[in-house]
Amino acid sequence: MNTGKHLSLNHQRSYELTRKDRLYKNLQRMQDLYGTRHFDFIPQSFILPAEYKELLTASHRLRCPWIVKPVASSRGRGIYLTYEPSDISIEEPVIVSRYIDNPLLIDDNKSDLRLYVLVTSYDPLVVYLYREGLVRCATVKYTSNAMNLDNPCVHLCNYSINKYHSNFRTSPDLEADDGHKRSFSSLIRSLSQSGKDTRKLIFSIEDLIIKTIASTASHVNIACNMFVPSFTNCFELYGFDILIDANLKPWLLEVNFSPSLGCDTSIDKQIKSAMLCDLLNIVGIESKVTEWCREENVCRTDKRQSGRFRSKSANNRRQSAKSDFSPIFHYFEEQHTRKGEFIRIFPTEISMYRYYDYAGTDLNIAFHNYLFPKGDRSMLGVKKSRRKDFEFPITDTDLARYQNYEEYFEKGYVSKKINNIVRPIAEIMRESPEDGNRWIDTIFEELKYSINAGKRLSVSQARKLFIRYLGCIIQRLPYLASQPGQQQLNLVEKFVCRVATKNRGLHQKLLASPRATVDDKVAFISAQLRSFIDGLEKECKDGSGFPNNNHLDAEILEEFCNIASETDFERLLALHTEVEPNCSLQFLFGRKFSDHTKLPLPVICEEGRLDLLKKACLLNGHGSPHIVEKPCSS
Ligand code: ADP
């Protein structure tokens, strides 16, 4: 793959960090090499099925809850808690971790953090932490009581699960210290006001991030050296999920690549759009690349191959590296001037002292010396095992860096960057419903005309429409739950139970649980439906059934999707089903449903709503759910 120097790319061997099992293995290797206490921020874990025996031994020694997670899943899917290793299904690879049962509680709810970490280079290692982040809270009061292990809204802080709970509130802005999704700065402010040592907390978080990234740097470097032609090509934004316990110790839960940039709430918009803006600035555009880079197209592989580094003594090597690589170092210094709200946490003046054992590569040392020529190097080479983390003196550099955070946390964030966010068309339409209705009708007529003229939905188009339709149903679930008899809610519940091929664990236990409230159920059904949608979306991305000339115009359809309501989606899909009965509702064809599909599913067709769901279920196509109609409720 030749990307040239003008492209930026990411995800170079990121799975070493972002797959839960690989992350644990990499950190475990560091524990073996340097001592567990230096890497004790990851809960003890076992990868199943391979380490089942070890899990049994550990659980005999200590009776505690375990949290079971599929190794390559996200958004809380498939996660459950148990005391009994024998309860754990090993049909798919899972990681079983010690459950941290003393989390920091916010308004009595469990919480965790999503922090944004930018690595602009792995060699030399350059790591930034964004000053703002998200605090995500569970929506049901925390209790470590074993009876409550099956309620995801108590134990999981994922927004994708808790947003469906009726308790869910989001903060209006970054200053507010309420809501189940709030800013990191508001948390630090309130901890600091209650006399907590937030400085130590921030330094421990920085330490956790640097050590985690350093643990996989060598893997990533190999990939970069093979595939990345220029040092300016590569960057990676990670979402670090960190749980803080009641003693303010941070625990690493997982590292996400492509952390969600979805802006469902205003606080998302404020944080993520500003972060993205800073990220694009810092990563830089071509005009920021120095003249030297443009002319020489510095190729790290060539430099390596010249062998200039390898044959020299450590001191000479540092010297020569300094002279050979000063344009690179200059580039990173220049990059630092565009840091915005990002704080460079590696290298810092004392990072070679602290992280020499883990990150003391030639280039890292050379860059460190370039940045801090007067820095204290007397500690270089002192074995890590002779030092104790967080017993090292907090240096002036640390304090200066902390001031950067403090300034921000105290002042709060002045949100200037987000004024120009493009408003979704749907929002504009909502403000003027009459115009919106006229417009949607016009588009619908145009699509209808095309369908009558012989054009059809491609499979991916039909699936997209169905996805949007289901999305509307999710939004309506709280309303359905408030209806007497909740018959429509039950319909949706049964639909999702059938189509769910994942998420059996915690969620399905919850449905059966007599302790589950209606709100818990709504949250559960929404999460399940969302998971089903994700599966359909993935299939759309796989590229099957791309539109061609025989299909509906993609642009018009896109416009329709932007403003259509549940009924609009329903009438378009229903129309298509009428003219194309043989391949009607192609969006479900070919999907494998769970065994439960044979169960009859009652349908309520009140006000024509959920009619499409009913039709989807009535399909006799391969693998589709079978459905029995019940009379409408009066
Ligand atoms: P996913 O990628 O599916 O979101 P995570 O590892 O982020 O999986 O875990 C999801 C949620 O589970 C987190 O929000 C956290 O609240 C909880 N969690 C995960 N691991 C632990 C643990 N070891 N101890 C306590 N809670 C945990």
Beta content comes to 5-15%
Helix count equals 23
Instruction: Summarize the amount of helix as a percent range.
Output: 40-55%
Structural class based on helices, strands and sheet pairing: alpha+beta
Which small-molecule ligands are present, each listed once? adenosine-5'-diphosphate
Number of strands: 11
The largest sheet, given as strand count, sense and whether it forms a barrel, is: 7 strands, antiparallel
Regarding quaternary structure, how should these chains be classified?
A: single chain
* Rg value: 27 Å
Distance between the first and last residues' Cα? 64 Å
The pLDDT mean sits at: 76
Shape: globular
Question: Which features characterize this protein?
Answer:
disordered C terminus; binds adenosine-5'-diphosphate; 11 strands; single chain; four-stranded antiparallel sheet
Describe the protein.
The protein is of the alpha+beta class and 634 residues long. The chain is 46% helix and 11% strand. It has helices at 15-18, 20-34, 52-61, 152-155, 159-162, 184-193, 198-227, 266-283, 291-296, 300-305, 314-336, 351-359, 362-371, 396-411, 425-431, 433-452, 459-482, 487-499, 505-512, 518-541, 554-563, 566-579, 611-618; strands spanning 45-48, 66-70, 80-82, 94-98, 105-106, 109-122, 125-137, 181-183, 236-244, 250-257, 342-346. Strands 5, 6, 7, 8, 9, 10 and 11 form a 7-stranded antiparallel β-sheet that branches. Strands 1-4-2-3 form a 4-stranded antiparallel β-sheet, with helices on both faces. A hairpin with a 5-residue loop joins strand 9 and strand 10. Helix 16 (433-452) packs parallel to helix 22 and helix 18 (487-499) crosses helix 20 (518-541). Adenosine-5'-diphosphate is lined by residues 43, 67, 69, 73-77, 79, 97, 99-100, 112, 156-158, 241, 243, 253-254. Adenosine-5'-diphosphate binds next to strand 2, strand 9 and strand 10.
